[in-house]
Amino acid sequence: MLHVIWDWNGTLVDDLPIVVECVNAALSEIGESPIDGDDYRNHFARPVHRFYESLLGRPISDGEWTTLDRTFHERYADSLDRVPLADGAAEALDAVDAFGWSQSILSMWWEEELTACVARRGLDDRMVLVQGNRNDGGGTKAAHLRRHLATLGVAASAAVLIGDSLDDEAAARELGARCVLYDGGSHHPDVLARTGVPVAVTLTEAVDLAASIGS
């Protein structure tokens, strides 16, 4: 039986416009110009300080990173009630249930805020586990995926990670899990396709692709 691990930001929730708002608030704090969604998707990377360096075309100082990271997270936390579920999210979760699989959420957003968001949307009782970031602001996902799988007691070979970023694919590859990428957030679809893993336009298609690679 497969286990589906959902990413949250940019996957189950459609937060790209709000993320761009928050990045622009952070950039303003260090005197830099605003960006748009294409700029974000063209440059997004983890660790996140690499994203800002790519975006600005220069190294960022420790002080700038502290300001950027703090401002982004403060603005995003203030915007949580405006973050909608992605189109088709409910149907995709139903599809996982219909296959008889278990499912969980693993996000790089702070865990306390994540679990509250998932509960407010009535999704917590559908997940066997909801985990977020505890102490690694701006880092990569692989270590968090390792912890998630260990907590679940699920072998990586029995899991499919559905996410929106190159970091999701890299984490799944490092741990030996399968991966489906969703064109909903961090990168343009041609960038996702270069990874060689299946890329879905909708979340229900993502579940169908998970079924095809997990069979």
Describe the structure.
The chain has two domains: 3-15 and 85-214, 3-Layer(aba) Sandwich (Rossmann fold), CATH 3.40.50; 16-82, DNA polymerase, domain 1 (Orthogonal Bundle). It is globular and about 50 Å long. It starts with a strand and ends with a helix. The chain contains ten helices and six strands; from the N terminus they run βαααααβαβαβαβαβα. The longest helix has 17 residues, at 62-78. The chain has 215 residues and is α/β, with parallel strands linked by helices. It is 49% helix and 13% strand.
The helix/strand class is: alpha/beta
Largest pleated sheet: 6 strands, parallel
Would you tell me which CATH topology of the largest domain applies?
Rossmann fold
Count of helix runs: 10
Tell me the name of the CATH homologous superfamily of the largest domain: HAD superfamily/HAD-like
Q: Strand order, main sheet: write it out.
A: 3-2-1-4-5-6
Quickly give the CATH architecture of the largest domain: 3-Layer(aba) Sandwich
CATH class of the largest domain: Alpha Beta
Runs with pLDDT <50, length 5+? none
H/E element sequence: EHHHHHEHEHEHEHEH
First-residue to last-residue Cα separation: 9 Å
Q: What share of residues are in beta strands?
A: 5-15%
Q: Give the helix level as a range of percent.
A: 40-55%
Mean pLDDT: 94
DSSP summary, beta strand count: 6
Domains (count) = 2
Radius of gyration: 17 Å
- So what's the overall shape? globular
